[in-house]
Design a protein that fits this description.
alpha+beta; 4-stranded antiparallel sheet; rod-shaped; LAQU0S05e02982g1_1
Length: 216
């Protein structure tokens, strides 16, 4: 009896070991993917298909391509950037306007050069219609510095104009300047005009004087 029991025990243990081995009755009721032990997520697979179906198409360089193509997007962005960097060409009408302006300037330049510059004084003809005698007309010099000497001023005017000064008068003004009145010998209109032209705008001790012909 002891021998029979040991045989039964051995057979029972053998059956249990065969049942516990992998690959026997473990794939019952499972799909092919589950049998191959591959991860399979149905939800993710459905979402991926939906996202791929929603991707549109774009026309790039005359070709119909997927809008989700990274290379297509990069090339399109590079073309837009290059287009912004290129300087704008001026319009044809603006060039024509510039050319017209240049032509007008070139035509007017010779005409302007031929016109003589105006003189700062009148013609060489000196007339008087005031009816006053020549002795009543004199030179008035304005904006002389304070402390001007009448004798020194007379000597300077005679050297510059070449005319003889018969009388002089200096008046100090509240503005801080001196006005001088000089009478020239045989002072006709031409001599007075020449003296005015030579003395007007002269720089006297840092002051610019103005000269005019006046009558008493």
């Amino acid at each position: 009896m002891a021998v029979k029991r040991s045989v039964r025990d051995k057979g029972h243990a053998k059956q249990q070991s065969l049942r516990g081995k992998p690959g026997q009755n473990n794939f019952k009721g499972k799909s092919l993917l589950e049998r191959l032990t591959l991860p399979y997520n149905t939800k993710k697979h459905v979402n991926a298909r939906a996202s791929s179906e929603n991707v549109g198409l774009r026309v790039v360089d005359g070709k119909l391509l997927s809008a989700n193509d990274v290379g297509v997007l990069l090339r399109d962005a590079a073309k837009r950037t290059d287009a912004k960097k290129k300087p704008l060409k001026p319009r044809q009408g603006l060039k024509t306007t510039v050319r017209r302006t240049e032509r007008v300037v070139r035509r007017r330049e010779p005409v302007r050069a031929s016109v003589p510059a105006p003189k700062p004084y009148g013609k060489d003809l000196y007339l008087s219609v005031s009816g006053h005698s020549s002795d009543a007309r004199f030179l008035r010099i304005r904006n002389l510095p304070l402390g001007s000497n009448s004798q020194v001023l007379t000597t300077l005017v005679e050297k510059v104009t070449g005319a003889h000064v018969t009388k002089s008068s200096l008046v100090d003004l509240p503005s801080g300047s001196v006005t001088a009145e000089l009478w020239l010998g045989s002072a006709d209109n031409k001599i007075l005009a020449d003296a005015k032209r030579q003395l007007d705008g002269a720089n006297v001790d840092g002051r610019v004087v103005s000269v005019e012909v006046s009558s008493g």
